Structure formats: structure tokens, C-alpha cells
Amino acid sequence: MASVSAQTDLRQAINAISDVIQNRPLPLREFDQIYMKAGDMVLQTMIIAQRFAKRDLVFIGDGDSISLCLAYAMHRGVIEEGPNKILVLDFDERMVNAIERFADKERISDKISARLYNCIDPLPDDLLGEFSAFYTNPPWGASNLGESVNVFAERGMEACGPDAVGVVVIADDPNVDWSKRVLFEVQKFAQEQQFFVQEMQPMLHAYHLDDAPDLKSCNLFFRSHPDRKITTRSYELHGKRLESFYGRNQPLRVKYVREKVRVDYGKAPSETYVLDPLEGANGS
Ligand SMILES: C[S@@+](CC[C@H](N)C(=O)[O-])C[C@H]1O[C@@H](n2cnc3c(N)ncnc32)[C@H](O)[C@@H]1O
Questions:
Q1: In sequence order, which residues have a C-beta less than 8 Å from that of residue 26 and are 6 or more positions away?
Q2: Residue 252 Cβ < 6 Å to ligand 1
Q3: If you take atom 26 of ligand 1, which residue's CA is the nearest one?
Q4: Which residues, other chains included, contact 91 with Cβ-Cβ below 8 Å and sequence gap of 6+?
Q5: Total domain count for the chain?
Q6: How far is the CA of 77 from the centre of ligand 1 (A)?
Q7: Is residue 81 assigned to a domain?
Q8: Whose CA is nearest to atom 14 of ligand 1?
Q9: Pocket of ligand 1, candidates 36, 44, 64, 65: which has the most ligand atoms within 8 Å of its Cβ, to mutate?
């Protein structure tokens, strides 16, 4: 049986991740926002904290909020080591604002920040080569042979300088042929970008995915070739690379998802419920 202190540690870890989950905006399925399950987020936070300890880490999209789990778990003393600084790039302003609000409230803005960015656009000059690690859990590229995965991974690689590492979190199921094709294409693409596979942790995470509840994802870790040329100019993406980006016949057409400001942020929207008064309580 686990010792008392191990149980306490686990409870603290789950409670920290639970605070982050509570902060996440509701997912938009049309943009492949499909959230990782809580237990796997705890495990993923531990793995990434250790793998990317002391590195400057950029996230290309992060609806799951693993970025915030890392920063917050370090702050709460749940994990002892982790990345130095974290930047999240996402085209959904709700994600960006949720991270910034949480960081501000918990006073961890020195550790984590977020910025609005669509990966169709060139990576801003001030980010090129500035990081030593990247993390992406992209649209999984089932209908475009992994091209959407490659687009996200490419932006992460562009953001990294020498001796870089990165992780791509994508579908992995030996019974699902498209996931095997995508895994193959992504590894090929990474090699063209002068990154090699360092390790693969297969079938690791589960998701809140109604139509495929058993589909798992893996951690595919990459490391840069020692002679890799660092990117000094980034380009806009177009044409074929944007087709079926979020699924069959669902190209990338949206620049940003904008947040509608609500005064009752964090509370259940009043349109989602009605109150039946107790008998006699409404003055009748
Ligand atoms: C595509 S989802 C993948 C599933 C992942 N489990 C999640 O829900 O976060 C990952 C993140 O990428 C963001 N994203 C989607 N399209 C994007 C784009 N064109 N540029 C930048 N971020 C994007 C989403 O807002 C989301 O936060």
C-alpha cells in the first residue's frame, strides 16, 4: 500500500491539476479542442516537468493546459523541477486569457505567459530560436496525412535554438491505420527539419472524445541534430497545407477565436439554467 506521504503528494498533485481544469474554457470540437483526462494530465505534467527541466518551453496550442499545470504545480511545490519559463501560443483568445488570468491570480506570471497566434502566420521574429524545448498537442491530422501535426511541430521547431528538444502528442493506436500513417509521416517530416526521434511513449493519454473514447495519444519526443540550421526567417503557410486541417473538408479558415467578455466569468451562464422556486416562496 502507498505510504501516507505518497498519498498526500498524490492528493496535492490532483488538487493542483483540478484547479487548472476548472479554469479551462469549454472546448470547441470544430477546432479539434478535445481535452485530456485528469489522471493523464497529472502523469503528463510529471513527465514533461522532468524531461524539460530548466528549459525555456514554448507550447504551440494548449487547450489541455499542461503549460499551466507545469507552472502551477511548481509554484505549489507539487513538483520540484520543471521548465524555466513557459510561453503558450494559441489562436483562441479564450485560452490565452484564461492562462493570463490564472497566472495573474496565482502570481506566476514570471513563469508563464500566453500570446495570441495562428500557426498559419510566420512565427514572430522575437520568438525565432528563443526557446530550447517545444510542446504541441495539435489537430491529429487524420484527414490530411498528418499535415496539421507537421504545421504545429514546424512552428515549435522554428521557435527553438541549438540543442533543442520537443514533444508531439498525437494519436497512437495499432488498430487505427490513419494514426500509424500519421506517425510515419511526422517522423519523416521531423527528420527533414533535422530533428530525430529520441523516444516514444506509446498509448499514454485518454481524452473526452465521444466518438472515439478509446483512442489514445503518445508522447513522441524529438531532439535536434547537432548541425541543425537555426531558422532566421519564418513564412506564412497556405494552399495544400491548410486543407482538411481539422478533419475531412474542414480547412483552416478562422484567424482567431475571440472571447466575449462576461462579467460573471467562472460562473454558470444564466442562459443554461432556470430556478424553480419553493412552493410559496415566490409570494403566491
Ligand atoms: C487543436 S487542439 C488539440 C487537442 C488538445 N488535446 C487540446 O484540446 O488542446 C490544441 C490547441 O490548438 C489550438 N489551435 C487550433 N488551431 C490553431 C491554429 N490554427 N493556430 C494556433 N492554435 C490553434 C486550439 O485552440 C487548442 O488550444
A1: none
A2: yes
A3: 63
A4: 61, 116, 117, 118, 119, 254, 255, 256, 257
A5: 1
A6: 28
A7: yes
A8: 61
A9: 64
| Distance of CA 255 from the midpoint of ligand 1 (Å) | 12
Instruction: Evaluate whether residue 265 is within a structural domain.
Output: no
Ligand 1 and 64: CB distance under 6 A: yes
The CA–CA distances, whole Å, from 109 to 83, 99, 124, 135 equal 14, 9, 21, 19
Q: Is 32 in the pocket of ligand 1 (CB under 6 A)?
A: yes
Which CATH number fits the domain that encloses residue 21? 3.40.50.150
Cell triple for 89: 501560443
Is the whole-model pTM more than 0.90? Answer: yes
Judge whether 8 lies within some domain: yes
Question: Taking Cα atoms as reference points, which of 98, 122, 132 lies closest to residue 257?
Answer: 98
Which residue is closest in CA terms to ligand 1's atom 27?
Answer: 63
Question: What is the atom index within ligand 1 of the atom nearest the CA of 120?
Answer: 19
The domain in which residue 80 lies consists of 4-249
The answer to whether residue 109 sits within a structural domain is yes
Distance 163 CA to ligand 1 centre (A): 26
Please report, in tens digits, the pLDDT of each residue of the chain (284 residues total): 456 667 769 999 999 999 999 999 999 999 999 999 999 999 999 999 999 999 999 999 999 999 999 999 999 999 999 999 999 999 999 999 999 999 999 999 999 999 999 999 999 999 999 999 999 999 999 999 999 999 999 999 999 999 999 999 999 999 999 999 999 999 999 999 999 999 999 999 999 998 899 999 999 999 999 999 999 999 998 888 999 999 998 999 999 999 998 767 778 888 889 999 998 876 55
